[in-house]
Amino acid sequence: MSDVNKIFVYGTLKQGECRASSWPRIPLQIEPATTAGLIYDLGAYPAMIPGAGIVLGEVWTIEPSGLAATLKVLDQIEGYADEPDDLYVRRTITCTLLSGATVEAQTYFYARTNWLSTREPMEPDEAGLQSWSSLRRK
């Protein structure tokens, strides 16, 4: 397990989304951030894969003593068990905070990329950012 205590989220685990209350620990800090990747809208949730786009999300900083418990819950939510048939895989990435500082964070990439072959990634906004929100559907 990585000891990186920052987690980049871009979908249902963000503030205001349906799984925001699923975090087992109160974060030390939540900051808007971007990272390289492509987001696909799968309806109830997004899928991010590595790519040349820029994804807008949040970096949640977790108390190091609560990291293992937090990752255990998030791994379950994201369908990650380090097995070949996982829905997502957890990886360490580089994120850029709004201040311009870069940080290492863990995130979940969609593992079933063959399911995305008939889909197009989300269109970036005017600023060139891909951002998913369940509020777009209401």
From TrEMBL:
Gene3D superfamilies: Gamma-glutamyl cyclotransferase-like (3.10.490.10). It holds the Pfam family GGACT. It comes from the Bacteria. InterPro entries: AIG2-like_dom, GGCT-like, GGCT-like_sf. Residues 7-116 form the Gamma-glutamylcyclotransferase AIG2-like domain. This is AIG2 family protein. It comes from Pirellula staleyi (strain ATCC 27377 / DSM 6068 / ICPB 4128).
